[in-house]
Amino acid sequence: MDTAKRLRHRKAMRGCLVAVVALGLVGCKMRPALLSARSHSEPQEEVVQVTLRSADAESIKRRQMHFSLVIVNCTGAEDRYPAEARISGQRIDEFRYPTDGDTVQITGRIPLGIFARYAQPCALLQGGGYFTGTIKSSRVPIDRR
């Protein structure tokens, strides 16, 4: 094979490899385990904090996955409330949050009237990226304080 044909062949093979990798990433599902969830009341809102391993938060950040802190009933009834998630005051979708230490605290705020509808509230993370797959964490009961 002459040099020109080899170069075209390499480019074609590289293009196929990139396409295969891209297709693989689109279908990836991340299922991080939430370590705990707790909440406390403020005058107009219930503040929910969930604990996630820093390594999982770093992977979410690196893959630029958008997600919400979702409140559901632990009993299985699908009444979902997606709250904006923040880490150390930074919005998740800006990808500037710190991931130092062993764990991170993800915070979401829910209006008190809405939170009161959940007899047994649970929290989970759910969302995804444009090309980086989806995220759906484990469900954990919220410890009310």
How would you describe this structure to a colleague?
It is a single chain. By secondary structure, the chain is of the alpha+beta class. It has two domains: 1-28; 31-144, Immunoglobulins (Immunoglobulin-like, Sandwich), CATH 2.60.40.10. It contains three helices and twelve strands. The chain has helices at 3-26, 54-62, 112-115; strands at residues 29-30, 34-41, 45-53, 66-73, 81-83, 86-87, 90-91, 103-111, 121-128, 134-136, 140-141, 143-144. The strands form two sheets. Strands 1, 4, 5, 9, 10 and 11 form a six-stranded mixed beta sheet that branches. Strand 4 and strand 5 form a beta hairpin. The termini are far apart. Residues 16-25 have low confidence and may be disordered.
Q: Label the structural class.
A: alpha+beta
String of helices and strands: HEEEHEEEEEHEEEE
What is the top-level CATH class of the largest domain? Answer: Mainly Beta
**Overall body shape:** elongated
How does the major sheet shape up? 6 strands, mixed
Poorly predicted regions are 16-25
Helicity, as a percent range:
25-40%
- pLDDT averaged residue by residue: 86
Strand residue content? 35-45%
Strand elements, count: 12
Number of structural domains: 2
CATH homologous superfamily (4th level) name of the largest domain: Immunoglobulins
In the CATH hierarchy, the third-tier topology of the largest domain is known as Immunoglobulin-like
Q: How big is the Rg?
A: 20 Å
- The multimeric state of the shown protein is single chain
Number of helices: 3
Question: Which CATH architecture of the largest domain would you pick?
Answer: Sandwich
Distance between the termini: 73 Å
